[in-house]
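can u do me a favor
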């Protein structure tokens, strides 16, 4: 059996793995990537957050992405019946990027993988990790290439960026109850041949059907648009078992987008994912770190998945470099606690979205400028900025303000 050696083995060539690979390559640390699929391959997670731009830049990937002409995203719009909540990232509290992209992930992930290979990192495609044997910090990973050839990879450290493949979470029994539970999603793409010009054909928009149910519209620069619904698992039981039929039935419930998408054929049979949230008991251990979705996924409502995937990929790569250099690394403080600080902010926002409290703030008729700017910074992914009261006090502030709105004590 062929055996390879590397300092760092990265499992998965999604955004998390590619940012990790980009950083390590820049730092001259040896790494190789194994990826189960062949690229391009479909993936969901198409609306990015400005915070992730910092990570792409640090990993040396930003210029390659810029060259592709993806649809720029300057903010996001939320609509519920006649109410509107619109956020412009240039008006956010604090410093940081005020734009990013909306991307068809098949194309986007291919750009990242091509750039990583151009820089000299080897990616094995159609290479599925089957098993990992740890001996102290060293590991021997069994990989099957093209469903037939078995190889073994010896590594000093593994970055598991396998997304929903959840390689180490499954193998080491690390799965835990998710922080947000019981939501499903269904989504597809259309070619929008009659797309309106300007904002209506460019801006990501969320149409809220009820407190628990919402729809996304994400237009791409290639003329295709992503459409999807998220709700509690039970909501989906009210529709046909045939995904195409069900999706058409769901589209009829839209008020703002009344009939706009009904006549377009789906570019692929709508995909339904049940119970979309994920969690683990720990995100690092002897000789490995979990990054991106292989560690945790909350909910799509604030498009935070790729931002966390790249943040954790970059952070883990930085710590891994120190580790293989023989330096002492405090994984608990510098990785687990750091990541949880950001995730817990979004987790509060997602929970308060589904209680309806956050929706009261979003759809308030006379929003107070400072509050909107501070929320906007969170929506841009700046969830580690403790100068922002909506970060620092994330557990209480949304509920408190919602109650003040209810009692008409505050005009936000
Ligand atoms: C309905 C829905 C909507 C979403 N919308 C958004 C959004 O708008 N914005 C956003 O930022 N996020 C969104 N997300 C989240 C987003 O999809 C993920 O957070 C993001 O793709 C995670 O990136 P990743 O690099 O961790 O994993 P992935 O991008 O999933 O990459 C993991 C890679 O690992 C490979 N792999 C898996 N198993 C193995 C194995 N055994 N061996 C080798 N390779 C393997 C896979 O083939 C894959 O290419 C959404 C999620 C859902 C469910």
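np, heres the sequence
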């Amino acid at each position: 059996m062929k055996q390879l050696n590397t300092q760092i083995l990265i499992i998965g060539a999604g955004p998390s793995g590619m940012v990790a690979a980009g950083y390590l390559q820049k730092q001259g640390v040896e790494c190789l990537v194994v990826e189960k699929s062949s690229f391009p391959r479909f993936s969901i997670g198409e609306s990015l957050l400005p915070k992730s731009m910092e990570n792409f830049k640090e990993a040396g990937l930003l210029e390659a992405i810029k060259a592709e002409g993806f649809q720029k995203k300057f903010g996001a719009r939320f609509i519920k019946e006649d109410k509107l909540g619109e956020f412009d990232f240039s008006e956010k509290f604090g410093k940081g990027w005020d734009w990013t992209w909306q991307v068809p992930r098949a194309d986007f992930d291919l750009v990242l993988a091509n750039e990583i290979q151009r820089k000299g990192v080897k990616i094995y495609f159609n290479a599925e990790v089957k098993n990992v044997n740890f001996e102290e910090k060293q590991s021997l990973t069994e990989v099957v290439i093209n469903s037939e050839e078995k190889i073994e990879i010896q590594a000093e450290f593994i970055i598991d960026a396998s997304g929903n493949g959840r390689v180490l979470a499954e193998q080491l029994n690390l799965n835990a109850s998710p922080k947000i539970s019981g939501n499903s999603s269904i989504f597809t793409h259309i070619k929008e041949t009659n797309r309106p010009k300007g904002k209506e054909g460019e801006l990501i928009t969320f149409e809220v059907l009820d407190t628990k149910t919402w729809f996304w519209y994400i237009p791409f620069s290639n003329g295709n648009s992503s459409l999807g619904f998220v709700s509690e698992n039970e909501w989906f039981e009210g529709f046909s078992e045939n995904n195409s039929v069900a999706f058409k039935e769901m589209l009829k419930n839209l008020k703002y987008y009344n009939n706009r998408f009904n006549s377009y054929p789906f570019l692929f049979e709508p995909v339904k994912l049940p119970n979309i949230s994920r969690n683990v008991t720990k995100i690092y251990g002897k000789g490995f770190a979990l990054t991106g979705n292989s560690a945790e996924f909350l909910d799509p409502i604030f498009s935070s998945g790729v931002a966390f995937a790249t943040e954790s990929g970059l952070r883990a790569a930085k710590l891994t470099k120190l580790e293989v250099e023989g330096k002492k690394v405090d994984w608990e403080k510098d990785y687990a606690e750091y990541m949880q600080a950001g995730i817990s902010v979004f987790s509060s926002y997602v929970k308060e979205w589904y209680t309806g409290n956050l929706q009261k703030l979003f759809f308030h008729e006379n929003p107070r400028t400072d509050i909107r700017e501070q929320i906007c910074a969170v929506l841009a992914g700046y969830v580690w900025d403790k100068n922002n009261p909506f970060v620092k006090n994330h557990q209480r502030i949304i509920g408190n303000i919602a109650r003040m709105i209810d009692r008409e004590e505050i005009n936000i």
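The mean pLDDT is 96. hope that helps!!
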